[in-house]
# Entry
Amino acid sequence: MSINSTNSKSLNKLENILIIGNGGRENSLAWAIQKNELVKKVYLIPGNAGSERINKCERIIIDINNKKDFVEKLEILKIDLIVIGPEIPLANGLADFLRKKDFKVFGPGKDGAKLEYSKSWAKEFMKNANIPTAKFWKVHSLEKAKEIIYSSSIPLVVKADGLASGKGVFIPDSKDECFRSAESIFNGKFGNSGNIVVLEEKIHGPEVSVFALCDGRNYVLLPTAQDHKRLNDKDKGPNTGGMGAYSPAPLLTKDSLDIIVKEIIEPTINELNKKNIDYKGVIYFGLMITKSGPKVIEYNCRFGDPECQTIMPLMDKNFVFLLEKCAMGKLTGSEKIDTSKNVSGCVIATSKGYPHKYKTGFPIKIGLIDSIDCQIFDSGTSFSKDKVLVTAGGRVLSIVCQAKDFDMVFDKAYKNLKEISFEGIYFRNDIGHQVRKNFSKEN
Ligand code: AMP
# Structure
């Protein structure tokens, strides 16, 4: 598959691009953006130890909270487009600030980021717009939570309202466990993010990720994806930020995607407009395909990780024009997304102990890897004092490959993983099992 954004040319100068963030997502965005010959330089603030392995990329170490120095630096670098990766700066209004300073920014303002940073707000938003989602209760106290939990005739999940690095969702097996989860949130497990608790009907079905690039009015869809949230093979173990992904998701046929567009994506964009929210960025729709149709599990105001690393290699060199058009409110919505050729898959190599406590600082050895249609995006790495590449996070490397089918994709990815080592390296062996035809025969 490749994206072929017709009528694609730069609307303005696009020589110097800035990406904010330090993970695999931002490195993969940089990798896709630098493919365009108009782009001379991609700066990352702060990036990580893998950023400068990418063509045209340079890291900048500067405190973005020191607004005066930050803006001065952007002016010196003559930044033409800014892409904000993570949710926290978006929720803090960084995009609004930079737009006021006349920069072109891909990333929603604080009002749009609320889709992600307040789950109760997002649920009310969906309710108003009649967007299918699980039933919910917005709860301000443990007493109220207790009353709802013990009188409920349906199983519930428990969520902290605010940002919690993907850890604020509990899927309890009993009412007592459900109550204890709510109690831990109200007791401050996630600080202010837990001042409100959302109790939700537990729904069932496979999950898929859909991404819409949006300019405030129009949108284009990126290839769909599925990720693997659980730590261990066979989808066992605790939830993580994501242990791997594949794209596109064959589960979504054209017909089912049409339903999602009609019932979920367009009503979301219309409701944003109704609320005067000028959303210029990506909307991530985390969906569950239930027996009664697709339902929204959550919105994110940024690219998912590791879906982004998986999808970016499917983009052609005109991808950066789509980002620019979104930032400028100039998307027509008819930019053609041409599905052809390859599919893509990603396996994440993590530190032993992740998603709980883990150690960092272990040297990473990368042997002879197949680099044809394969990428290694650093997720959590840094350099030691003597300039050795070392582990610096729970998720360390994203091993990504493309090929004409998923068997070939994951054969290549796992072959490359054999060439990578660091103390305590851990990864799942069954990423993409749903789409690997040769998987069940081997396992
Ligand atoms: P979230 O951080 O909101 O994406 O939730 C993390 C994971 O929890 C999701 O990917 C789902 O697997 C699960 N989850 C969230 N909400 C529900 C729900 N209402 N019913 C069942 N599972 C859920």
